[in-house]
């Protein structure tokens, strides 16, 4: 039997799903990051341990039937490596807005309203690195490291993790590379980008291929260690929110997927492309269509900051989803949002806070729903295909009361697809890549 492995690297942990060619699930695993995967110099080791553990949890009898693997990672989570693939910088996470320090340089390089014009974009973080931002202590030369101005390679989280499996350094996909400035129309880095970052200390940019493209076979060492077949292929990955979209099975323009995980991400399948950095809106290429959307820093992480999972479940049942809350919040854990308001200095708004916990939760759920609805409204105002239905992925999909509140604001049906896990979407990507696409 041919099986396909998808591994999802989200905000707080890694998950894996193995499917067959019919989409039937044969195995699922889960791994929680130390310190919830927050910013720390040891993050590459945390991710690598999660990758190995996720694979080791899969029974050997299943591993030896895996024909292809794809990994998704959090969008715009980036790092620098030396030419041996050893990290030489502390990774910068998807929601880290330190790129605000290079806003002037970013605007001087990029066209007006371009996707990269955000403090959290991959290009903003690259420019921050180029300006000399916080490298990790370099390993000694004896350990294969490089110091000073030695060549470096700029990678996204999914790029580096896939490299650990296939050993080919510097390969990315055009979903991850979109916020780096890669042009998905011409399938190359534009001149304004290459000229704008040119310099002696500029890291090498990754080669970009279509998501799901077979990159290379699993290394002999890892094949023997984990029992993968010798022809097991590692495919180019995608971002976590697109993997969740793929898992849903949505294929009709006008249908959308909202990912309600630690953050809020919306993706609308559209005939037309929409890009407007003013609002943090961008479009990913998906076959002959466009996946239009944006990602907000609001979401489940805010809820978990104030409530346990048990409290969320208990208090939600005490909320009337048809009763509008009078509380008007902008729920963030720290200042700054990306969509539908693209402002790295946007302050959280969490007052007034009622003494009644149920009332407070009601206000939070409704406020996040308003942000989601405003996001979809903007997409349509700017020319995207009109919204007809929203599917929900992520942990928030399990909250029926929240779904009813969201449907009231969205004014279209809100449903939960059969499959919502990003790891399932990554497994589908691996399967389609192994079957349909030639190796690079």
List the helices and strands and how they pair.
Blueprint: E1 3-9, E2 13-20, E3 25-32, H1 43-56, H2 60-63, E4 66-73, E5 78-82, H3 103-109, H4 122-130, E6 152-156, H5 157-166, E7 171-173, H6 191-197, E8 207-209, E9 214-217, H7 220-226, E10 233-239, H8 240-248, E11 255-260, E12 264-270, E13 282-286, E14 289-296, H9 300-306, H10 309-316, H11 357-381, E15 389-393, H12 400-410, E16 414-415, H13 422-436
Parallel strand pairs: 1-4, 4-10, 7-8, 11-15, 15-16
Antiparallel strand pairs: 1-2, 2-3, 5-6, 9-10, 11-12, 12-14, 13-14
Helix pairs in contact: 8-13, 11-12
What this model shows, in words?
With 440 residues, the protein is of the alpha/beta class. It has 13 helices and 16 strands. It has helices at 43-56, 60-63, 103-109, 122-130, 157-166, 191-197, 220-226, 240-248, 300-306, 309-316, 357-381, 400-410, 422-436; strands at residues 3-9, 13-20, 25-32, 66-73, 78-82, 152-156, 171-173, 207-209, 214-217, 233-239, 255-260, 264-270, 282-286, 289-296, 389-393, 414-415. The chain has a six-stranded mixed beta sheet with strand order 3-2-1-4-10-9. The protein has a six-stranded mixed beta sheet with strand order 13-14-12-11-15-16, sandwiched between helices. A hairpin with a 4-residue loop joins strand 2 (13-20) and strand 3. Helix 8 crosses helix 13 and helix 11 packs across helix 12 (400-410). It is globular and about 60 Å long. The two termini are 25 Å apart. Mean pLDDT is 92; it is low at 136-148.
């Amino acid at each position: 039997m041919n099986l396909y492995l998808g591994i999802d690297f989200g905000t707080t942990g890694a998950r894996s799903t193995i499917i067959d060619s019919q989409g039937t699930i044969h195995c699922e695993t889960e791994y929680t990051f130390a310190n919830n995967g927050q910013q720390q110099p040891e993050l590459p080791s945390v991710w690598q341990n999660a990758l190995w553990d996720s694979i080791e949890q899969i029974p050997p009898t299943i591993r030896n039937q895996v024909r292809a693997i794809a990994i998704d990672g959090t969008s715009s989570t980036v790092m620098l490596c030396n030419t041996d693939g050893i990290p030489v910088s502390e990774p910068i996470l998807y929601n880290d807005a330190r790129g605000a320090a290079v806003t002037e340089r970013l605007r001087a390089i990029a066209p007006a309203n371009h996707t990269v014009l955000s403090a959290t974009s991959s290009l903003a973080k690259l420019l921050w690195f180029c300006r000399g931002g916080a490298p990790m202590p370099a390993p000694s030369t004896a350990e294969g490291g490089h110091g000073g101005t030695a060549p470096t390679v700029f990678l996204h989280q999914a790029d580096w993790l896939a490299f650990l499996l296939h050993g080919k350094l510097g390969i990315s996909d055009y979903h991850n590379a979109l916020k780096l400035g890669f042009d998905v129309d011409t399938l190359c880095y534009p001149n304004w980008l290459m000229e704008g970052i040119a310099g002696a200390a500029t890291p090498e940019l990754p080669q970009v291929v279509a998501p799901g493209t077979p990159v290379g076979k699993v290394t002999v060492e890892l094949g023997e260690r984990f029992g993968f077949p010798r022809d097991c292929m590692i495919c180019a990955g995608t971002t976590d929110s697109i993997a969740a979209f793929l898992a849903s099975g949505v294929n009709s323009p006008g249908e959308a997927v909202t990912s309600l995980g630690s953050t809020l991400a919306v993706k609308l399948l559209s005939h037309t492309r929409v890009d407007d950095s003013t609002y943090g809106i961008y479009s990913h290429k998906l076959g002959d269509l466009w996946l239009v959307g944006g990602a907000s820093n609001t979401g489940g992480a805010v809820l978990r900051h104030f409530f346990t999972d048990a409290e969320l479940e208990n208090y939600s049942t005490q909320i009337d989803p048809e009763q509008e809350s009078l509380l008007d919040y902008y729920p963030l854990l720290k200042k700054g949002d990306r969509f539908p308001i693209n402002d790295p200095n946007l302050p959280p708004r969490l007052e007034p806070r009622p003494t009644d916990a149920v009332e407070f939760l009601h206000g939070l759920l409704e406020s996040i729903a308003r942000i989601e609805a405003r996001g979809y409204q903007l997409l349509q105002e700017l020319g995207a295909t009109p919204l007809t239905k929203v599917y929900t992925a992520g942990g928030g999909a399990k909250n029926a009361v929240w779904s009813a509140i969201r449907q009231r604001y969205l004014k279209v049906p809100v449903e939960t697809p059969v499959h919502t896990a990003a790891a399932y979407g990554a497994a589908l990507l691996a399967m389609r890549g192994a079957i349909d696409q030639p190796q690079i």
